[in-house]
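Hi all, long-time lurker, first post. I run a small reading group and we've been trying to get comfortable going from sequence to structure in the token notation. Rather than ask abstract questions, I figured I'd post a concrete chain and ask someone more experienced to write out its structure so we can walk through it together at our next meeting. Sequence below, copied exactly:
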Amino acid sequence: MRHLFPSSLNLRRHAASTTSALAFGLLIAFAFSLPARADDRQVVSKVKATYPEMAKRLRITGTVMLNATVAPNGAVKSVKTIMGEKILMEAAKDAVMKWKFTPSDHETVEDVEIDFH
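-- Answer (accepted) --
Happy to help. Here is the structure in token form:
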């Protein structure tokens, strides 16, 4: 006797295979949509971060770690804070937004550290 519908085992295999293929496709699409990580772009011009007055008075020091998204022309498009003292973060972001990097053929994300000592 022939069955009109495939067995439930075959359906599960097909569903798992389809789900895996879809997940892989989404992963590849996501990976190609992210800016490349390239630590070889050099800084052409830096603006020194202004030490916040309140941080000076409270004698707060430290390093702020950031990721700067850099356009192909070398301009900083955005800055994301990774870690550091909250009182120092805005000054670090403001300074890095004014930096200029060497040109590239694609957008990159650069790791940046700003020291406040």
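A couple of things your group might point at:
The chain has a mean pLDDT of 82.
The two ends are 82 Å apart (CA to CA).
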